[in-house]
Amino acid sequence: MQRLAILASGTGSNFEALLQAATDGRIPAHIALVLTNNPNAGVAHLAEKAGIPLWARSHKDFSGRAEFDSAMLAAMESASVTAVVLAGYMRLLSPHFIRAYAGKILNIHPSLLPAFAGGKGIADSLDYGVRLAGCSVHFVTEEMDTGPIIIQAALPVLPGENTEALHGRIRQLEHRIYPQAVHWFARERLLAQGRHVRLLPAGQDESAVPAAPSPDGCLINPPLEYGF
Ligand code: GRF
């Protein structure tokens, strides 16, 4: 069974959704460690409350990114972490960190990639005037927000909607697609071939999983399976 590290810098709502799914058995993986570069972040309090081991250090107390990332790697090694889930981790990862878990790092981004990569995906989408916004789960490679895409969800932008309101609706979709993507990963159903990720059928030990309907007005691909 995979032992996951969750890296996050903010409120931690995606961490909560993943924890819920791991606790109720929808994600066949163990959340072994939460790491944050912001000890005051909501995610730190949530992890403590849930009794999940927490590594919380400010990156400002380190001489640079490489040193900070090495400290995270050491903590992850002590916790026997096998894969990494970025859930609102607002820092770039150094190449040696990414290489240490090559093909085993997932990220969620609040836009329909490759549009609006970077730290302001939602504000940039609204400024641009898009009619459809959304979120993407992808494997992490050394270049930011460009790894092979696992699942995306799209939703219409409402007239006059501001960043906060749109982010709230995108988060609700994130809480559906991220646990689903981590489930597929933990079940070894994702096969990355260059830029393309193939979703393998459920194994013989699982009964065929029917697709669940997308929330009203949204489009999710590949479709969510029942339970997500
Ligand atoms: C999410 O919207 C995610 O797409 C982005 O950061 C946000 C984290 O939100 N990378 P939360 O801390 O999980 O609530």
Describe the structure concisely for a colleague.
The protein has 228 residues and is an alpha/beta fold. It has helices at 13-23, 42-50, 65-78, 95-100, 121-128, 163-186, and strands at 2-7, 29-36, 54-56, 83-86, 105-109, 132-139, 149-156, 190-193, 196-199, 219-221.
Verbal overview:
The chain has 228 residues and is an alpha/beta fold. It is 32% helix and 23% strand. It has 6 helices and 10 strands. The protein has helices spanning 13-23, 42-50, 65-78, 95-100, 121-128, 163-186; strands spanning 2-7, 29-36, 54-56, 83-86, 105-109, 132-139, 149-156, 190-193, 196-199, 219-221. The strands form 2 sheets. Strands 3-2-1-4-5-6-7-10 form an 8-stranded mixed beta sheet, with helices on both faces. A two-stranded antiparallel sheet has the order 8-9. The longest helix has 24 residues, at 163-186. 39% of the residues are buried. The mean pLDDT is 96. The site of 5-O-phosphono-beta-D-ribofuranosylamine (GRF) has 14 residues, from helix 1, strand 5 and helix 6.
Please tag this protein with its features:
binds 5-O-phosphono-beta-D-ribofuranosylamine; 6 helices; globular; alpha/beta; 228 residues; 10 strands; 8-stranded mixed sheet; two-stranded antiparallel sheet
Q: Which small molecules are bound?
A: 5-O-phosphono-beta-D-ribofuranosylamine
Amount of beta strand? 15-25%
Terminal CA distance: 20 Å
Main pleated-sheet profile: 8 strands, mixed
H-E order: EHEHEHEHEHEEHEEE
The rounded Rg comes to 17 Å
Q: Stretches where pLDDT falls below 50 for ≥5 residues?
A: none
Q: Report the strand count.
A: 10
Q: Count of helical segments?
A: 6
Give the averaged pLDDT, no decimals. Answer: 96
Structural class, from secondary structure content? alpha/beta
Shape assignment: globular
Order of strands across the biggest sheet?
Answer: 3-2-1-4-5-6-7-10
Helical amount among residues, as a percent range?
A: 25-40%
